[in-house]
């Protein structure tokens, strides 16, 4: 049985770095409808930032003409953030998720490490030349949703 | 994002205000590199007291400057991180590479001790 969505936002923006902050703040505003700790909120912001940065830098190779889709969903027991691009895709997902794997010397290759450390679940679907979808899930402890629906 | 640069005895002090992410990383890197070159910098202090957000893009720039200062046989120190920033730095492994302190005073003490040892 599908879970009931309690709230959902969808946002599309062009692939420029300025929109990383926009995505992170939008998700933080949505997440703040839940009864989360400040730590949780900060972790969600970092994970979102990493996923959207990856879509821009790697998915679209820093070209501003791409469209990044962001979907944030609040469920009874979790928040799910999806970041979707229609860029080049990832050839080897397990390799891309390795710590310190990077295609750029000025970067740390920590994007996926942060996503995995800060979220309970990180799912990556990707196809060469057909884009990437990153699904980040954070589970809520206790009655997190109460605040959102009351 | 804004920066305040100060230089004392070839130690460049940089006070950073704002968010260090993909959008600010490029400016951060360029302005730091320019100041490092123009002020004949040997040592670098980064004051992160007013940094409200950091992700791997910002960390990449910090690590890149660390390598640059290492090449000059200088010392790089970071200080003033809030709890959230500190957690992210810890997780990244940067805190086991770059000396980190609570305040500028502690950073100077560390630098003096290090310099005495080398003298």
Automatic annotation (TrEMBL), chain A:
Reactions mediated catalytically: L-seryl-[protein] + ATP = O-phospho-L-seryl-[protein] + ADP + H(+); L-threonyl-[protein] + ATP = O-phospho-L-threonyl-[protein] + ADP + H(+)
- GO MF: ATP binding; protein serine/threonine kinase activity; sigma factor antagonist activity
Question: Pfam families this protein is in?
Answer: HATPase_c_2
Q: Which residues form a coiled coil?
A: none
The question of whether Transcription is a record keyword is answered with: no
Q: What is its EC number?
A: 2.7.11.1
Residue ranges of the Histidine kinase/HSP90-like ATPase domain?
A: 39-142
The record's annotation in PANTHER family points to: ANTI-SIGMA-F FACTOR RSBW, ANTI-SIGMA-F FACTOR RSBW-RELATED
Sequence similarity: Belongs to the anti-sigma-factor family.
Query: What is the protein named?
Result: Anti-sigma F factor
Lineage, broadest ranks: Bacteria, Bacillati, Bacillota, Clostridia, Eubacteriales
From TrEMBL, chain B:
Q: Which domain of life is it from?
A: Bacteria
Q: Which SUPFAM superfamilies match?
A: SpoIIaa-like (SSF52091)
Q: Which InterPro entries match?
A: Anti-sigma_ant, Anti-sigma_F_ant, STAS_dom, STAS_dom_sf
Please provide the record's keywords in A-Z order.
Phosphoprotein, Sporulation
Describe its function.
In the phosphorylated form it could act as an anti-anti-sigma factor that counteracts SpoIIAB and thus releases sigma f from inhibition.
BP GO terms, sorted: sporulation resulting in formation of a cellular spore
CDD domains the record matches: STAS_anti-anti-sigma_factors (cd07043)
The record, for Pfam families, names: STAS
Q: Which GO terms describe its molecular function?
A: anti-sigma factor antagonist activity; antisigma factor binding
What is this protein's record name? Anti-sigma F factor antagonist
Q: What does the sequence similarity comment in the record state about its family?
A: Belongs to the anti-sigma-factor antagonist family.
PANTHER family listed in its UniProt record: ANTI-SIGMA FACTOR ANTAGONIST TM_1081-RELATED, ANTI-SIGMA FACTOR ANTAGONIST TM_1081-RELATED-RELATED
Record domain STAS: where: 1-111
């Amino acid at each position: 049985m599908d879970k009931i969505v309690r709230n959902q936002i969808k946002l599309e923006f062009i692939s420029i770095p300025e929109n990383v902050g926009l995505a992170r703040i939008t998700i933080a505003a949505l997440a703040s409808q839940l009864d989360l700790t400040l730590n949780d909120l900060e972790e969600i912001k970092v994970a979102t930032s990493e996923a959207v940065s990856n879509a821009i830098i790697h998915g679209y190779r820093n070209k501003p003409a791409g469209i990044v889709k962001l979907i944030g969903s609040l469920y009874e027991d979790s928040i799910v953030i999806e970041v979707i691009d229609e860029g080049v895709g990832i050839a080897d997902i397990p390799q891309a998720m390795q710590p310190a794997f990077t295609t750029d010397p000025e970067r740390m290759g920590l994007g996926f490490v942060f996503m995995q450390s800060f979220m309970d679940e990180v799912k990556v679907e990707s196809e060469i030349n057909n884009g990437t979808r990153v699904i980040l899930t954070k589970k809520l402890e206790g009655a997190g949703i109460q605040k959102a629906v009351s | 994002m804004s920066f305040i640069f100060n230089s004392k005895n070839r130690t460049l002090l940089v006070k950073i205000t704002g968010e260090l992410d993909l959008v600010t990383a490029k400016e951060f890197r360029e302005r730091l590199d320019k100041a490092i070159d123009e002020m004949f910098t040997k040592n670098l202090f980064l004051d992160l007291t007013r940094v409200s957000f950091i992700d791997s893009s910002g960390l990449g720039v910090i690590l890149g400057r660390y390598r640059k200062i290492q090449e000059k046989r200088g010392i790089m120190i970071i200080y003033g991180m809030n709890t959230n920033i500190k957690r992210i730095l810890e997780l990244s492994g940067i805190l086991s590479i770059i000396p980190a302190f609570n305040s500028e005073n502690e950073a100077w003490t560390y630098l003096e001790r290090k310099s005495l040892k080398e003298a």
